[in-house]
Specification:
Layout lengths: L10 H9 L5 E6 L5 H15 L4 E6 L2 H10 L5 H4 L4 E6 L2 E8 L2 E9 L16 E4 L15 H7 L8 E6 L7 H13 L5 E6 L9 H8 L7 H7 L19 E2 L1 H5 L10 H4 L1 E9 L7 E9 L5 E9 L5 H18 L4 E7 L4 H13 L6 E3 L5 H13 L3 E4 L3 H9 L18 H11 L3 H6 L2
Length: about 450
């Protein structure tokens, strides 16, 4: 019988554990030392007692990582939860934990999943339950025969009761673990149920308040690592370009749209808007279309993105033109007293620009469309870094794609002067924003 001395769980952990009963996908994401893996070990163990499947999978970035974090888990892992009725051994040359449960002997195969050939270790078996720690460190690719994650899922196809229990510390929001799995499951209402919880160090009642403060004191609160390790946020850590971009540059829509009893806007920035410019970047084979509207306050004291639209799917020229006109008309409706003085488009697509011009004339919208200046990208990057650091720039929280683009833009590997454009990074939103402000960059820099 196990004799683990449990401390009271926080309500968030209790809710996550209980919800696993009715969900096949269970994912705990968040800060370090938040208790994520312990929850999954408990949930896995509870399911192991009654599942009709015999063979199951436990994985980490390496075999040692899997045994340490899932088997041991600081005294709360599977070998402790099943103390007195489990033993380590070999199953078909794989490291395994053999467990006597209420429904017979179960075999939990332990494996590392971090290498391109890791999938080979889990072939040949059908798995029921799958527990994975640091799932974002497992090897994944478009090739379903080589991706450890995809192979593991394929190995569950014949299971009578397939479930998976993942944990991860936050990473780059554009990582495939989000785009191909977590975010996709949330959007598509995953059949079988999706149980997701985000945890921070504050959710772990096993750590005393004094110890929490001691851990937190080791971090610079303005650093990326504080965002990741303490707050559990998805941010880029390596090669981040816009390190000066902070949450205080983002204006909440409730603040932006609040009016007084006379119907006048309360927000000082909104009240002081004088004119608007628009930037357009056209997508190619691996990129998206982007429309950005930038508002400028009196005497160029402040400027910011007040409307943004990104179109990631493939559309024809006619639909693109219709969406552009719709964007401009919405902008005019939202800011009826503010003049839109200029539209700057990527000069590489003259046919599309001509179509935009005709469409605006047909709608009796007299806004000039010009080619974007398209100055050196590095100069544009330096300009925005300077604007962030001087707090001259703001962006509305509704412009979420642009916000993510700022938070995830990185340099090419081993190059600190080339912005990575690999089809995954959203440089389209950044380009459109830069096109909208290029004519005014010099004056914005000069005015304090």
């Amino acid at each position: 019988m196990q004799t683990i001395q449990w401390l009271p769980f926080s309500q968030k952990h209790i809710d996550y554990i209980l919800a696993s009963k009715d969900n096949k996908a269970n994912v705990a994401e968040g800060a370090v030392r938040a208790g994520k893996t312990i929850d999954n070990c408990i949930m896995f163990a509870l399911n192991l007692e009654y599942t009709p499947d015999k063979i199951h999978l436990a994985s980490g970035s390496t075999l040692a990582n899997a045994k340490l974090n899932i088997g041991e888990c600081n005294g709360f892992g599977l070998e402790h939860l099943f103390k007195g009725r489990c033993r380590w051994g070999k199953f078909k040359e794989n490291e395994a934990l053999f467990v006597e449960t209420k429904t017979g002997e179960k075999v939990v195969i332990f494996a590392g999943g971090g290498k391109a050939d890791s999938y080979k270790k889990i072939l040949g078996n059908s798995y029921g339950l799958w527990i994975a720690t640091e799932i974002n460190e497992h090897y994944d690719s478009d090739n379903s025969k080589e991706s450890f994650i995809k192979v593991a899922f394929a190995r569950q196809l014949a299971s009578k009761n397939p479930k998976w229990f993942w944990d991860l510390n936050p990473g780059n929001p554009l990582d495939t673990i989000y785009t191909d799995y977590l975010d996709l499951w949330e959007k598509q209402d995953l059949i079988g149920g999706y149980n997701y919880k985000h945890f921070t160090i504050y959710d772990n009642n096993a750590i005393t308040e004094d110890r929490k403060q001691e851990i937190i004191s080791q971090y610079d609160e303005t650093s990326i690592w504080y965002q990741r390790d303490i707050l559990g946020r998805r941010v880029v850590a390596e090669g981040l370009i816009y390190q000066e971009f902070k949450d205080y540059h983002i204006i909440k829509m409730a603040d932006w749209n609040t009016v007084d009893d006379k119907g006048n806007y309360v927000n000082e920035l909104r009240k002081s808007l004088k004119f608007i410019t628009v930037g357009v970047d056209f997508g190619g084979n691996i990129s998206a279309h982007s429309f950005n509207a930038t508002g400028y306050t009196y005497n160029f004291r402040k400027f910011g993105t007040i409307k943004h639209k990104r179109i990631a799917k493939r559309i024809d020229d006619k639909e693109l033109t219709e969406q552009f006109v719709s964007f401009i008309m919405e902008l005019k409706t939202e800011y009826p007293t503010i003049n839109i003085v200029d539209i700057r488009c990527d000069s590489a697509e003259q046919t599309l620009i001509a179509g935009f011009q005709r469409a605006l004339r047909e709608h009796q919208i007299g806004i000039p469309i010009n080619n974007a200046i398209k100055g050196p990208i590095l100069n544009r990057i330096r300009f925005y870094c300077k604007m962030f650091s001087s707090n001259k720039y703001f962006v509305l929280e509704s412009c979420n794609d642009l916000i993510i683009a700022y938070k995830t833009a990185i340099w090419e590997k081993d190059k600190n002067d080339v912005r990575l454009d690999d089809g995954k990074q959203d440089v389209d939103s950044l380009d459109a924003q830069e096109y909208s402000t290029e004519p005014y960059m010099n004056v914005l820099v000069q005015i304090n």
